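Handoff note, outgoing to incoming analyst
You'll be picking up this chain. Sequence as last confirmed:
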Amino acid sequence: MQLLKSFSIYTLGFFFTQAVNFLLIPVFTNYLTPDDYGVLSLIATIVSFVTPLVLFSIDGAISIEYFKNNFNNLPGYISSGLFVSFLSFLSVFVIILLGGNMLSAEFSVPQIWLIMVPVVCFMESVKTVNLLIYRVEKNAIGYAIYSFSNTFLNLILALVFVVLLKLNYVGRLYSQYAVCIIYFLVGLYTLQKQGFLVKGIKKPLIKDVLKYGLPMIPHAIGFVIINLADRIFISKIAGNDELGIYSLAYNLGSVILMIALAFNNAWVPNFLELLKENTAQSKERVVKITYVYLLVLFGLTLGLSLTSPLIFRWFINEKFHDGLKLIPWISFSCFFFGCYLAFTNYISYLKKTKVFAYISIINIVFNLVLNYVLIHKFGILGAAYATFISFFLFALVVASIAIKMYPMPWLSPRLQK
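Most recent structure output, in case you need it:
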């Protein structure tokens, strides 16, 4: 019952965010050009690429320690983690500052927005830690309020800057960064008020954060590269107009990803507690819930693929209708990402994060080759093909490794009754 309640709240939160983004689509498609969409997509993807370097997976390290070891020194761990994140931010900031001109010319993005990327990523790290605390404490209501208010403020400021002030894609960036700054300050205040920020930075805790986080960087960047590669190849090969169409379709197909992430947010605290019990009953419960989750997610993915023509006909401006053919491939790519989420938690629980690094490096090379070949041959549809193949193989490999590392009763007779 607790899991269902939490999942409902997390799902509502993700759908509220997705609904806001969806409602903004007809607005933005009338006030922004496909080229504007393409620039926004590139900046968002660069932010996604830099985020793992700055965040350093401190959220994962905190949650595993909290449940696995009844971690009592949470303030020291959080403070040490944010200290590592801050040092990483400074390093990335200096690199981008020194290479700003070259990067700006390469991506066709104004230098000021590239310089802001690591700043935004560090501010988002504070927000991520706040949301994590709500999750590990199973405070879904607090999580929802924090997320809802963030999304609502983003909506209001986006309408002001883009529609009223007509600042095109720059207005969208103003709204996003303004909200980021506000919630960074709110996040610091909340952490301080709850006693999670302390002055003492302990070397053993920093070492533990680095031990967990370093192998996760190639893993996290691997997924980002899958998103970054297709957009860069499309921008260079087909142009920003096609990139804008692809980005819109990707946003729509990613509703499946939102559902998968909502379930994972609700499920992980319960999952870790059940694994800690380490009984036959707790393991069977984990397996049953996983089966139900995957079946429901598959049904929703199929439903989105079948109804997407109606969505495009009723809500999407005609200049973006070429994106319709991408929806099934993107939505099922997100389904396989959801499958990956169901199994990756076992490897994280065992702290065998080096496995992710090895798999990710192979997947990165494979995805780059796929994107180069398929986009040249099929255009933006080729990018969707490459994403589908990469996510499918990644999910398959991670699931196989997790099943071998942490045996579970996947074919238990009791499950087959």
